[in-house]
Fold this sequence. Notes:
Number of helices: 10
Order of helices and strands: HHEEHHEHHEEHEHEHEH
Number of strands: 8
Low-confidence stretches: 1-12, 214-218
Structural class: alpha/beta
Strand order of the largest sheet: 1-2-8-7-3-4
Distance between the termini: 44 Å
Largest sheet: 6 strands, mixed
Radius of gyration: 17 Å
Helix content: 40-55%
Amino acid sequence: xxxxxxxxxxLVLPVVCGGCGRPRTExxxxxxxxxxxxxxxxxxxxxxxxxxxxVHAAAAYGNAVRAVLLAHKERGALGLSRAAGRxxxxxxxxxAGKDPDPRPLLLVPVxxxxxxxxxxxxxxxxxIALAAAAELRRAxxxxxxxxxLRQRRPVADQSGLGARERLANLTGALGVVPGGAxxxxxxxxxxxxxxxTTGASxxxxxxxxxxAGDRGAAGVRHAAVVAASPSAFEINRNWN
Length: 240
């Protein structure tokens, strides 16, 4: 019910830019440029968790980028998923798009906790992944979303936890749904999320896919995010 209300509210409430609050536009040109106008980069947190795939990000997490992602995730500005998806698609192309494997791209979103989805009324990661897959297809790149990951147990709130604590909190928390491994064997798996900070979520997602033992996920090589922490983004400015 909450999700339907947000969809309807978006049609009747005054529109303001999700990045800066400018009226009469969902995302102004300047804020859009911060989100998806730059060159995506390979990013790496410090310390880097063992098992983290190669990650590419579209932007650094700050200013308008931070505001857009929070507006979409926490305040129900669902229309911003298109812009975030465009940014994510660019990060996917920067990494997995250069892989010579001819199979279609399978974007596997890191799932949100069930209680978070219930509280927000939507799953922001999945919504952005769907928008990114559509953007890739418009560019002539076969892609679809494979939502095969699920939380196997509750996890503590990650806010306030350090890198090691986050990894310990998430280890063993994710699993692949029955039949998911078979679905992934048909494409190139790319883990996707909205944000990289310590890399704990993507590391656990990669572990879950590898544990499933399918041919497509056994060597999970690529991940992509809309944004990465400024330190992870800036330290790797010369990697590409």
